[in-house]
Amino acid sequence: MKHNPLSDFLYQIFALFFAFIIVHAAYVTVIRPNADAILEEQRVHQEAGEVYEVKRSIFIVIKDYEQEACFVLALWVFAIMALKAKLVIEERRLLSKSLLEVSAGTSILPEDARQYSRPLQTLPEEEREFLLPRALLSALQRFGSTRNIQDVSTAVREICDTESDRLDSELSMIRYIIWAVPSIGFIGTVRGIGEALGQAHKAVEGDIVGVTVSLGVAFNSTFIALIISIFIMFLMHQLQLMQERLVLDSQNYCDINLIRHLQVR
Fold it and tell me: How far is CA 79 from CA 3, 37, 75, 173, 180, in A?
């Protein structure tokens, strides 16, 4: 499953751009206007000295810039994980195919390695770069050159281990975003508490609207960030599980459909 680093980079850049456009449009047209209207209604009631019940609104909870940034990162990481999941699903389709066409009881000799390599070499270029064809082709080439079954098993294991390490390293951006989301939430907490302390003199005079709004920023930003990070972490572990199963199933496919049919005279 080799990919062009440039195309992956461009995909991530465009995904981030579209995530920002979608989230910012939702905030400008829906979320912030509704939040401002609710806050203005609360301010009018307080200035009139009326007793009223303050209802918790989702628009108030998510209205601030920190929450917007968290949602942008969430959509961005969802796009990255969707691409990786799509690639894993495409690779898994090969596991249901008979790439070598080896019937039960057939023995593969070192002289037959080139013959069984031809179906793999005729695959479309994109599929030839998948893990399973690469592992099978490398195993057959190793068997033809060394005539040693143990070397074949070692070659398959090395390719699968290398692929597993590569897949794990490609999750580094997702791990960074999982770290960044709650960090942005904590920035909102610091900003909100700072603003609340700056308006403490107004609270002493009886105007607590500014303090409550600032404290709302402090707690709501962390609340939303933690929820988003938990959800992203769950999806990342599901993606990691898919990738690990792909590697293990590919290695098992090589054992069942190739290695056990090898024979040296």
Answer: 16, 33, 6, 12, 17
Neighbours of 99 (CB within 10 A): 19
Q: How far apart are CA 250 and CA 246, in angstroms?
A: 6
| 6 — pLDDT class (breaks 50, 70, 90) | confident
Considering its fold, how many domains does the chain have in total?
A: 1
DSSP annotation of 62 reads T
| Least reliable range by pLDDT among 21-30, 96-105, 139-148 | 96-105
pLDDT at 105 over 80: no
User: How far apart, in Å, are the Cα atoms of 57 and each of 39, 54, 63, 130, 208?
Assistant: 10, 9, 10, 49, 19
Q: Which of these, 265, 263, 247, lies nearest to 91 by C-alpha position?
A: 247
- Round to the nearest angstrom and report the end-to-end CA distance of the chain: 35
- pLDDT for the residue numbered 40: 81
Dist CA 10 CA 226 (whole Å): 29
User: Tokens 């609360």 — which residue?
Assistant: 42
* The predicted structure's pLDDT at residue 41: 80
State which residues form the domain around 238.
5-261
Q: Quote the CA–CA distance of 60 and 62 in Å, as a whole number.
A: 6
pTM of this structure: 0.85
The pair of three-digit structure tokens given for residue 1, joined into one six-digit string: 């499953």
